[in-house]
Amino acid sequence: xxxxxxxxxxxKLLEILVCPLTKETLSYDRDRxxxxxxxxxxxxxxxxxxxxxxxxEARELDEAKNG
Length: 67
Fold this sequence. Notes:
The protein is α+β, with helices and mostly antiparallel strands. It is globular. The termini are far apart. Strands 1, 2, 3, 4 and 5 form a 5-stranded antiparallel β-sheet that branches. It is 16% helix and 25% strand. Strand 3 (42-47) and strand 4 form a beta hairpin. The protein has a single domain (19-66), classed as N-terminal domain of TfIIb, CATH 2.20.25.
């Protein structure tokens, strides 16, 4: 049993979802419950188990701001 407060994202879902901006694959950040697009420097939130794949709702990655 995991000690994380967020349930795991379905691996099949990760296989088909891509960043709407870059069309690149996403990685799952379990600690923040986000889908991360390193290519775009954005993290898309997952709310109530539903990925919010809107650029306007995404958070800028800290690495993107620093360089």
